[in-house]
Design a protein that fits this description.
This protein is an alpha+beta fold. It has helices at about 1-5, 10-15, 35-45, 50-65, 70-85; strands at about 15-20, 25-30. The protein has a domain at about 10-65: Orthogonal Bundle (Ribbon-helix-helix fold), CATH 1.10.3990.20. It holds the Pfam family RHH_4. GO terms for molecular function: transferase activity.
Length: about 100
Amino acid sequence: MCELYVKADPILYESRSRSLRIHGCVTKIRLENLFWDILAELAASDGFTTNQLIAKLYDELLEYRGEIDNFSSFLRVSCLRYLTLKKGVGERPVLAVVGRVG
């Protein structure tokens, strides 16, 4: 089983930084290449460029949460959720909830 993972092309887990503008401010986001590929696929499926998708996600997260603690991690989780939903497994957010009240 582990062989399936350890034989992955190293380029997939190599990190790459990209500069982009969010509301006129230039920022850099560093993600592994595989996550950039998934974001590009997700963006294309919704008719956006990758940068447009990232700006939209940033805006929506800021509106929903009021702050953004770790945007790169949020993007990674978004990619994994996209793949999970695409696969048809469905959402299972309860698995990631810590200390939910109510």
